[in-house]
Amino acid sequence: MSGVEVIATAGIDTAPEESALVRDSRDALSTDGRLAAVLPGFHPRRAQQDLAAAVAAAFEDRAVLLAEAGTGTGKTFAYLVPALLSGRRTIISTGTRALQDQLYHRDLPRVRDALGTGLRAALLKGRANYLCRQRLERTRGENRFQSPAQAADFQRIAAWSARTRMGDLAEMESLPEDSPLLPLVTSTADNCLGSECPFWGECFVVQARQRAQEADIVVVNHHLLLADLALKQEGFGEILPGAEAFVVDEAHQLPELAAQFFGEGLSARPLVELARDAVAECRGVDGALAALQEPARALEQATRLLRAAMDVLPARGTRPQLLTVPEAVEALEALDSALMALTDALAPLADAAPGLEACQLRARDHRDRLARWRDLDDGGHDDESAGQSGPAVVPSSDDDVRWYELSPRGFRLQRTPLDVSGPLRAHRERSRAAWVFTSATLAVEGRF
Ligand code: SF4
After folding, report:
1. Residues 35 and 78 placed together within one structural domain of the fold
2. Most confident of 216-225, 290-299, 385-394, 412-421
3. 187 alpha carbon to ligand 1 midpoint, in Å?
4. What pTM value is reported for the model?
5. SS3 9
6. 20 to 30 A Cα–Cα from 111, which one of 65, 75, 100, 327?
7. Do 272 and 360 reside in the same domain of the chain?
8. Domain membership flag for residue 162
């Protein structure tokens, strides 16, 4: 195969009668094919036809295909053609959101129109990309902006919210990707109120998910694919199991991302957001503010103190490195106590409002993550309160690497499994689908 190296296949019949799908895929990309007839500037390439044939065969056999396709092969069309001609429910995963938008808005419609297939396609991003109407309204009520510019940005989001159909924040081109407003107008799996939300019926996250469930081709990115596989409950957990084929483009990025998703982390920002959300959710609940204001303030303070104690450390390091700093060890203990105090203060209020119940679950989850990162099995943690504050902490595994990372004002405590091939393989086998992994650089010295 010129220009395409099929590095490994599993489950593909190696001496097949060429099936109709393989033949049609090759033909569509040939000199006399439909793409050449319809798309101006389309150049038929042998390597592209070969790759399309290999992808089609993998689809037919529900097999695994690893294909390295050099620049200029035209690999996007080479997998889109068999995916569209097969009529099978296919998930296509790209490396970034920008590539996802390009594939969905440009390449997919061109190939679909050229082939004349009427398949339904959907674009699905992680929930942080969609406006959350409930949080938008809450933020509007609070008016807690740090500057006039931020207040003006919020007004633009509010005006756009009335006219957007998809609620995809990428539509707001002038809003910076790191705008501090984003956490205030988007949801996380932790703070989403789910079916108890007053905006459930018009929720953009729910609608995006419904469109994906009804579509034949769903374009996702690796973050979302892995979140789904790792059951991180991005809120889309039922999308992927029904797929008959997965195409993972830019597949060389998968191992590193997978290590993040099959581990877990705890960072400063969600801790501060939890403290603020707990206070914000007090509105309309008798006695809630009196009970929560102090533990919420203490949690913010403990988070800030931990970051300050880590200032003497390098920007990235291991858990043993962090534990050599006595102030940081104390600050970790204080953070644990603050999370416990907030969890306990929230407990009698959880039934009063869904938002307060969600905050209690978040506080408990953060505390559990912190305990697993600290590895309290060998750290002598006094966990007398676990019975009151939540379920016992799940022990962490010896196969994890525990490390930290600092940003200018934040930190992340991360647990990463040493080997992600096991969980990835288990998910792939359970899916009983075809899996196609492709990239310009998949092999190292001829091996995946
Ligand atoms: S259901 Fe969740 S994401 Fe949707 S509007 Fe409500 S809180 Fe926001």
Report:
1. yes
2. 290-299
3. 7
4. 0.73
5. strand
6. 65
7. yes
8. yes
